[in-house]
């Protein structure tokens, strides 16, 4: 029997949220903190002391013994260093529990072990974590007890960003400023703030603990490096939105409860396309909070899985041959008065502000397509993008019939005088209710699709932080807004000027709009004709970070300095090299120590059987000898491929860090890995299951 959950009672119970602050903080302190959160005003040290004290008291009541600054360095995961609240013992031998404003605001973890991409010499180890009061603190309960977690930004001694959060916060300031200028032009004088709102849908796989532990590739790299396809994959489409099995729904319930307590609005859950694949989507939130929440979601999915005898795989491509996992990033812009700037209304052709915003987004995405593509580049995502299961690696925008029609009217006649209206949905069944269908169908193949009142950026990888993608989106759109406002604020005839600008933006950037099938070969050719970049992999994508137009964009809006961009590039190359190096070494290890010995054992069994059968007087041993010959041939192929992989992996490991090495991994090591996988997967189809040294794809995907 499942226990009844009172959601409204548990929701946010472990969060130092507005209600708690209002209850606990003196009125004046509460007001100042709200100002700091909403308008970026600075807090005085005295105020910080009061807040820290109340936070500590509250956390202790929740069972916390420690606090930690929780941050997102460029390692791909979050980091934390725990301190207990205790003070030095008093003369009586007792200790007090204390937490000061200084400790709340600033931490000083040794930064030398985090990636800095050359921003900092190793001996200059100082780094700071700085309280981000716009994302609420929370108490996390785990096996080790309870910890007060304080979301923080992480930067170097000289203020350079060493994390995902700092640039995201900077980009939010940039778009806020420019969006406010834009809405003022249209007469909005009340809104004080414009924030990007984001809802990130998280895909993941679940496998059984037992199977996972028997696969070194999953353990070390998060994906399978060997594995033949089972007789059944996802071709029946029977997993997507299928009935959720009891074991999985118990897990989802547990995950939801944990997330709700932490104030994460877990809302939607369903089975995804591949067997053993699922999705969780929260209700959208301010992008900064959403980026933190997404990290909490990923951690919670993993932690709770272990408690249910499973492992949660967040890798973008855990299995060849079935769909990988991504993170659909739904993005819109909302004023503090609740207006969504991406809401077209019922008659978009008359909504001039919306059309301007839309044309600015098209301009931004067309101009910085490579940068946006880069923002979703990570090692695992290389297996996904462009593989007919996820968006292609080419950036384009899906607008749908209605908006494309409005755009085309503007481009061709200079006037948009109508919007395609929605029609009744005709099902031919009298007993089911009638309703107006949407004005446009969905398009699942587009990387950047307009979906009613938001854009859905579908490229982000399942394991990746959503911060870079949103940081880029915010900044490139801020730039388009700025350029629009620079013209419009000076215009003598505003109506005329805005009309001209919208037409100009649409005309110049219409090539980025594509409503067709993004998976098709024709699109690849068409996109090339249109001059749209098609960037196949992470190591190629990285270059976009330091295109001249990227550097000037980021510098102008105070999001990155050139040095920070250079450093991020270095980090990405290194991350790539290290990840592929681990994969190559894992393959070498598994092939040498598990696969080849198992196959030798199998061939010995076959040879013994041939001898036994012959000595029993039966001369027809064709089947056994043929198997033996095939197996031995594949065994030889395996050994040759293994030796080749060892050679190139060694060459790569001896190279100097940087771009050239990353490309070597991509161009030489990856193909050598594929060459080793081929004969091994064939052997798996031949060799006795009892002898094969690890669980098969069939076991992993269907025996969860
Ligand atoms: P889909 O059918 O695309 O899979 P889901 O319901 O799974 O849709 O997820 C849609 C996501 O978009 C949710 O996280 C939702 O909260 C979010 N979302 C809805 N409206 C907006 C908006 N205006 N801005 C940003 N995100 C939004
Ligand atoms: Mg969804």
Automatic annotation (TrEMBL):
**Keywords in alphabetical order:** Ligase
Q: Name one GO molecular function term.
A: glutamine synthetase activity
Q: Does the keyword Ligase apply?
A: yes
Annotated PROSITE patterns: GLNA_ATP, GS_BETA_GRASP, GS_CATALYTIC
The protein's enzyme class: ligase
Ligase as UniProt keyword: yes
Residue span(s) of domain GS catalytic: 164-595
UniProt xrefs under Pfam families: Gln-synt_C, Gln-synt_C-ter, GSIII_N
As recorded in UniProt, its EC number(s) are 6.3.1.2
Domain GS beta-grasp: start-end pairs? 65-159
PANTHER family recorded: GLUTAMINE SYNTHETASE, TYPE-3 GLUTAMINE SYNTHETASE
Q: Which family does it belong to?
A: Belongs to the glutamine synthetase family.
Q: What is this protein called?
A: Glutamine synthetase
Recall the taxonomic lineage recorded for the source organism: Bacteria, Bacillati, Bacillota, Clostridia, Lachnospirales
